[in-house]
Every structure is written in C-alpha cells, then in structure tokens.
Amino acid sequence: MSNSQPSATSQPKLLDQVRDRLRVKHYSKRTEAAYVQWIKRYIFFHDKRHPLEMGKVEVESFLTSLAVERNVSASTQSQALSAILFLYKEVLEQPLPWLDEVTRAKKPARLPTVLTRDEVGRLLKYVDDPLMDLVVRLLYGTGMRLLECLRLRVKDVDFARHEIVVREGKGAKDRVTMLPATLADRLKVHLVQVKAQHVADLAMGKGEVWLPDALAVKYPNAGKTWAWQYVFPAAGFSTDPRSGAVRRHHIDEKRVQRAVRRAAERAELAKPVSPHTLRHSFATHLLEGGYDIRTVQELLGHSDVSTTMIYTHVLNKGGRGVVSPLDR
What we know:
Layout (H helix, E strand, L loop, with lengths): L13 H11 L4 H17 L10 H13 L5 H18 L25 H9 L4 H13 L3 H5 L6 E2 L4 E4 L8 E4 L2 H23 L11 H4 L19 E2 L6 E2 L5 H14 L8 H14 L4 H8 L4 H4 L1 H7 L12
Antiparallel strand pairs: 1-2, 2-3, 4-5
Helix pairs in contact: 1-2, 1-4, 2-4, 3-4, 5-10, 6-11, 11-14
C-alpha cells in the first residue's frame, strides 16, 4: 500500500469521509454507527496510525485481539472485519490483494430456540402492556423480525387482502406476509388512535416522519401524509442525528425486548426467549402444520432455502424424528 497520507487541510477527517460514503451507499444508521466505531477502534489499537500505513498484518492482529482478549463472538468479529474492509475499499480506494488471506471467524452452527405452541400461549398470557401484547402477537403471527414490525407504515397494512408488506427487509428486499385474522380488528382500533395522534401533531405544526433514501426530496410533503406514518409510533418526539429534524419515530425495540423478557420470566419458560424466538417459532409451527418449505421461505424472506432448512432440523431433533433404540 502507498504510504502517502491525505492532507488534513484538503479533505474532511477520515471518519467523516467514512460517514459520507456510508450515506451515499444508503447504509442504515445502525450500520453507520457500528462501522465508525470499529474503524476508530482499529486505528486506536495501532496507536493512531493512518490506515494507509497498515495492511493484512495489522488487520489480523486487531481481529485476533478481539477474539482472544475480548472474547467477542464470530458475528461481532465479522462485523469488525466488514467495517475495516469498507474503509479500505470504499473510502481509501485501496486494492486488497491480501483480502483472501485474512483469517475469517466461522460462526458456529446452532439450532434456533423454538417455543412449543403451549409455551407461546403462556408467554402471550404474561405480556401485560396492551400495546406490547399487540406487537408480540404480530411478531409471532407474521414471522417478521422485530425492526421490520416496528418500521411498518400505515400503507403497508392491507386489511382487504389480509396482507402485510414488509419493506426493505434483510437484504433490502420487499416481501408479503399474512395479517392474522385474529389481530385485524385490534390493529384497526389501534390505527384509529394513531391517526388521532397524527392529526394532533399536524395541528402543532409537526406530524412528519422520516422517509427512506431520496423520497423526502422527490415527495417533500409525503412525510406528513397518513399513509407514511408508522403503525407503532413513539410516545414522544426525537431529534434525527443526521438532519437535526424533530420527528416522531417508531417505538424503541428495547421496550419490546424488555416486555418479552419479563413475560418469559413470569411464564417460567426454561429457555432463552427474545422477540426473534417468535420468528423461529412461527416458521417451525408452519412446518409442523404441513406447509411446504418454499412457502415458509417466502414468508420469512430467506434468499436461499438452505437457511429455512434449519427449521427442519429443529423438527427432527431428539425423539421427534427418530425412535430411540431403547424404546424398540
């Protein structure tokens, strides 16, 4: 690599360049924050040397330190590597002939935690907050990821077709899942309350939500329309860290995570339970019900059916798929 460093007076600071490039590439705010932190830690780990002075040896020593000294998971180490590679490829525009030689952590293969139908019923029984109860039931009833659910807009719920359109899911893909019939009326009542709040916000000169990508420029008034409002808006307003605009965001995912954790404790479930466990349970229970794996794949939004196949392993583990020789 070249040892020449960019002039501090001619270009923005390195981390500002990273942020700008991430935004040009439409990375999420979460990914931006994570990548900037990893790049900063990488630089500080090597005594603030400029990345142009470093290469394969420095990257591997940093990743090794994470694994050995910090004992981070394989997925965390992979995220750190992705951030560093983004820095070299996208920001510094450096060739990476050593990329294939970098040792990558392998994520251990683990079966997902799945609740039985009885355990799901017990969990739902102990979600005492009505709003959280609606969110949790929607997670189990649709198979959505937590943030996919919280980012739903009013326009994405089709009561006539009993469908929910999941926009920009994992891999930036749209997909369609079902709207559970048992939740339709509750969701309608909830949206009546949300609309009343939105009307009140508009009366105060607010009522605008964040719009993805360049939609805010192309349709400057769309952010205040009812169709674009969040199905699950936050109780108060917050300041957008990028634009400084004061808006009503969707509810914080930590609120749902806490509600599920408390319900699992009260239900005395002897399994680690999170909102994502409901997605695993959704898929497994559909397969148990006789639905084919391709249908489940589409509902979950998996690119490859091999990802969905893990739920067949859950179905077949233990005594469910094989009779013990002791019982013969």
